[in-house]
Amino acid sequence: MPTRAHVLIVDDDVSIRALLKEYLEQNGFRASTAADGQALKADLRKAPVDLIVLDLMLPGEDGFSLCRWIRSAGQTPIIMLTARNASDDRVQGLELGADDYVAKPFEPRELVARIRGVLRRSGTADQRENTVRSYAFAGWELSLPQRQLLSPERVLVPLAASEFQLLVIFLENPQRLLTRDQLIERCHGREAGPYDRSIDVRISQLRQRLGDSGREPSLIKTIRSAGYVLATDVVRQY
Amino acid sequence: MTAVLLLGLVLAQLLSSGVDVLDRGRAFYRGTTLQVAEHVSDLAKMLDAVRPEDRAQVIGKLSERALSISLSRGTDGAGSASERSYERAFKAMVSRDLGPGWPVEVQLRRRPRPAGQETASFSDSPANFLDRYLTLQLFYPIPRGFAFTTRIQLHDGNWVTFSAPLPYEHVTRFYVLLPKLALMLAIVVALMLIAIRWVTGPMKRMAQAALALGQDLDRPPLQERGPAEVRATTRALNVMQLRLQDYVRDRSAMLAALSHDLKTFITRLRLRSELLPEGNHRDRLIGDLDDMGAMVNETLDYLRGVNSNGARSLFDVMALVESVRTDAEDMGWSVAVAGTAQGPFLGNAQELRRCLMNLVENAVKYGGGAAIQVEEGADALTISVFDPGPGIPPEERERVFEPFYRSGTAELGGAGLGLNIARSIARAHGGDVVLQPDTPQGFCAAIRLPRLRA
What we know:
The structure holds two protein chains of two kinds. By secondary structure, chain A is an alpha/beta fold. Chain A has two domains: 6-125, Rossmann fold (3-Layer(aba) Sandwich); 132-237, Winged helix-like DNA-binding domain superfamily/Winged helix DNA-binding domain (Arc Repressor Mutant, subunit A), CATH 1.10.10.10. Chain A contains eight helices and twelve strands. Chain A has helices at residues 14-26, 37-46, 63-73, 87-95, 108-122, 161-172, 180-187, 199-209, and strands spanning 6-10, 30-34, 51-55, 78-82, 100-103, 134-137, 140-143, 148-150, 177-179, 220-223, 227-230, 234-237. In chain A, a hairpin with a 2-residue loop joins β6 and β7. In chain A, α6 (161-172) crosses α8. The mean pLDDT of chain A is 83. Chain B is α+β, with helices and mostly antiparallel strands. Chain B has three domains: 2-172; 192-304, Helix Hairpins, CATH 1.10.287; 309-450, 2-Layer Sandwich (Heat Shock Protein 90), CATH 3.30.565. Chain B has helices spanning 2-49, 52-62, 85-98, 129-139, 174-215, 228-275, 280-304, 317-330, 349-367, 418-428; strands spanning 68-72, 104-110, 146-153, 159-165, 313-315, 335-339, 345-347, 370-376, 380-387, 432-439, 442-450. In chain B, the strands form three sheets. A five-stranded mixed beta sheet of chain B has the order 6-8-9-11-10. In chain B, α8 (317-330) crosses α9. Chain B starts with a helix and ends with a strand. The relative contact order of chain B is 0.07. The model of chain B is unreliable at 113-140 (pLDDT under 50). Chain A binds chain B through residues 13, 15-16, 19-20, 22-23, 26, 83-87, 103-109, 151, 153-163, 193-197, 205, 208-209, and chain B through 260, 263-264, 266-268, 270-272, 274-275, 289-290, 292-293, 296-297, 300-301, 304, 313-316, 319-320, 322-327, 329-332, 344, 349-350, 353.
């Protein structure tokens, strides 16, 4: 990144604010903090930021309401941070326009990876990429807030976390060649763990979920010695 | 309780009617005997007053069907050697009516036989068993078919013999009473049963409700019905339920608040650990914090409860199992999958995924690996998770489902809620999680789910 991205941390816990600021600065971000919604609004009026890490539970106006307020003002990416773990919260947060969702206690490296991921997506040509709620392709439908894949027969197909991740990368880049290196880099935003399997195994699992595991897969095609391509049109729903 | 009441009632009824019959029998016997004795002595006095040559004619007029009278010059030799108590009693009655100076002999004889024949003994009585033992021995001193043969010497030395049968009243025959007795008993028993039901019905409902409370504290309160005492008890039970709900709610709120605050501290510590110099201790610190975080999350999950009315939809069973396998393998666990399912299943995929994941996690933690077997029956789906480990000792097999229980055989972290949550999820789907200790493939924890029609 040419200039350091500016991240605004909104959390009511003074220690977390200070520690997170220090950690993000160590990882190459510019970070500032706000203790509640009022401070956040004041800061944003002064100068725009590149990304907001927003705690859900705040004194006064809560994270959901602030998320709505920020979205009404612009497209500043938001990562929701919360001590509540219920998946309903995640769905609601994402539907209100948050770009990602991290549950406390989080792994700091994972938060950094998510921040980078969201910033990368917000830097793409399609600014609206961040607000995509679902993808429709070849009769299938993937809903992002619910993390649900529906088959053409309207049967829910549960996905492993890694399968979901890989599918989203393909859906963001339909009809485009993705090299194995690109896929590996995207999949392992954080560094690859000791148990990460080869990208080819993951692709074959994902093909199986999509009923695309025949002799000649038609959805995710293999381009010999180059990589893979999602060979279907994708309709984004916002 | 019903049995004891019934027995008591029947016994009391039998005894009271027994005593009644006995009294009646005695009184009747005494009354009629006195009458006969009086009659006999009156006739004797009258015959004494009549001239001897006219006596036969008078006797001819007096003889009735029930009383035969005959004259003789002396005793007929039967004598009065051994008098039975009945005979003595009758003789005393007659003698009292006659006054002093009248020799009297009394014998008990079988009636249908003509006078003058041998005296029958009681043991010859043709009465049946009931007559013998109930009528004769208990209530009525003389069996049917006997008569008192009374011989009285008139003042001129002649003997007059009266043979008077004692009436045998049918009421004294006990078995005749039985139908009436039975009817009476039936009415009383029916009334009692209604009363008992009125009391025990609500009691039973309360007992069931108290038991059900253990399963579901939020069940609707009982209706206050039945007699006043039962209503009061029902009310007490309902109040107790409300208090228990409050208590559990308070404790849950406390636990939730505590877990939530812990998350803040763990987050802080996790950030602090990242700012520490790298090294062995930092890695261990991070490991401990991860375990703490997992435990807190599990506790909050448990408190949140199973979303039993969560959205149900058709989902791909094998994709669910495979996705659990993939997630588990991404965590470095070894998991195998076998079997197939026929077609999609109706349920809450997210919850069932959590259910299976918990079982796989246990298998890996306690057994060193998991093998998932999917079996599709006619109307049920079974997903079994086998592990080659030592299993769970029999005495712990139900306890492992209790919240916060951890098998003592291993200190492997976790809050001890995995099985409890798994079972709640399965039960919310109308199924269950069961443990099977000794399958050929090792210890087995199985999710059984009835197939719900779409």
